[in-house]
Amino acid sequence: MVYPTPPYEVGGNITCVSDPALLDIEGVVVALTATDTLFHLGKEEISFPPQGPDRLGRLTRHLLKQQNLYPLYPGPEGICIDQEQAEIYARLPYNPHLLILPSDLRYFIRDLENCVVLNPERLAKGLVGGTYAKLELHPPKHEKTMVGSVNAQIIKV
């Protein structure tokens, strides 16, 4: 596969989106990617600030501050990236209300930079079950943040 990936055409009542995708669902802006950006970014990180142990939050802030769902250039070996397309489709023109970043790294739900960030981890890990997320979204009460408008659970399989 090449990143970014265009949406599949399956027909019927199924809507497929590209990877990455920026969606507006009744006023709730959701950004998501299936690519393990956090893992790739963590492998390339060379500076570890002393102010806190929140590695996953720090990695996620890189994406939000750089306004890009895949800010690595060049990408890691084994990942095919169309850089021209990535500059267009991986951009975050603004912080979304909800950012979904599935990763092999530990699952989490956090409020960062007025954005609810979710890593549901993986549904399957080798031969054993993993985790998935159950979300309930409501339109944001305040335009800047989704805190209080999202009910999220990480459920182990």
Automatic annotation (TrEMBL):
It is found in: Nucleus. GO terms for molecular function: DNA binding. InterPro entries: DNA_pol_a/d/e_bsu, DNA_pol_alpha_bsu. Keywords: DNA replication, Nucleus. One of its GO terms (cellular component) is alpha DNA polymerase:primase complex. Residues 14-109 form the DNA polymerase alpha/delta/epsilon subunit B domain. It comes from the Eukaryota. Its main location: nucleus. The keyword Nucleus applies. One of its GO terms (biological process) is DNA replication initiation. The keyword Nucleus applies. Belongs to the DNA polymerase alpha subunit B family. This is DNA polymerase alpha subunit B. The lineage of its organism: Eukaryota, Metazoa, Ecdysozoa, Arthropoda, Crustacea.
